[in-house]
Amino acid sequence: MTAERSRSSGRPTLDQVASLAGVGRGTVSRVVNGSAQVSPQAKAAVETAIAELGYVPNRAARTLVTQRTDSIALVIFESGQRFFTEPFFGRIVQAISSGLVDRGLQMVLMIAQAPHERQRLEGYLTRQHVDGVLLLSLHGTDALPAKLEQRGVATVRAGRPTNPEPGCYVDADNRGGARDAVAYLRRQGRQRIATITGPLDMAAGIARLDGFLDVVGTGPIAHGDFSEESGAAAMASLLERHPDLDAVFAASDMMAAGAMRVLREHGRRVPHDVAVIGFDDSVIARHTDPPLTTVHQPIEQMGQEMVRLLLAKIDGADHPSDPIVLSTSLVVRRSA
């Protein structure tokens, strides 16, 4: 039987693969389902036959055998506008996607902010639809991670919970990174250092503010939400309230870029009059004028570790739930 004849007679079947490979139907099934109980020679013969015939496994039938969907949900709790405009999300999603593809898994991307979106995704996130869930950009004391764990759905989140609670997460050392940034400003002789915070219903926003306070004790504070627009508004407020400030630590590069724009509009030179440091080391940091000093967080590694922890939970590892906190580092450019 040739590959051309097989294709012309309809979708290739498991029996046709077995016949071409010279093995039993059960052997083909074990290869397709990833079983280790197949000899290398038989596995190679089956894979060659699959390629020649263009055989595509029936996903529904495979799910019945393996009790796996081969799908992982990546849920992002932000608006679509923020998801598509902030560089952080693109970088971590790419890293997560690459890690899943390497394991032959598909990623289901879900963006949920409005209440009706939350309700729909909570109904979808069951073991009948996905093998596990990765959570990004959670706000406040969200009950969803606990609900998923109660359902038996393997779950890993980016960022530590705002309150101590059981669960598996990957985070960067946000507090330490912020502390290093503000300490650097102090060493440069800056005396009136302000900060623009991220959202304080998120662990990253809280930790970066704490790092600022670790160094300055008290200081001028304005609040943002990680967006460029909020950074600009916060910078305008700081200049109005504290016109003598000589440095700003912004809790994201996007907010730092907005702050630098407002400083230029007010005739303040960066870094001569006001030094500026951001957080993330995103592509934006290299294209501001002047280039932005910033805290590098290993975003790609965060995505890779999230995938590794989730797959360990799915595969039944004994201790997959220890949190992972990755180191940050200060990248000095001309803005400070």
From TrEMBL:
Annotated Gene3D superfamilies: 3.40.50.2300, lambda repressor-like DNA-binding domains
Record Pfam families: LacI (PF00356), Peripla_BP_3 (PF13377)
Alphabetized PANTHER family for the sequence: HTH-TYPE TRANSCRIPTIONAL REGULATOR GALS, LACI-RELATED TRANSCRIPTIONAL REPRESSOR
Residue intervals of the HTH lacI-type domain: 12-66
Superkingdom field: Bacteria
Organism field: Pseudosporangium ferrugineum
InterPro entries: HTH_LacI (IPR000843), LacI/GalR-like_sensor (IPR046335), Lambda_DNA-bd_dom_sf (IPR010982), Peripla_BP_I (IPR028082)
Protein name in UniProt: LacI family transcriptional regulator
Keywords: DNA-binding, Transcription, Transcription regulation
GO terms for MF: DNA-binding transcription factor activity; transcription cis-regulatory region binding
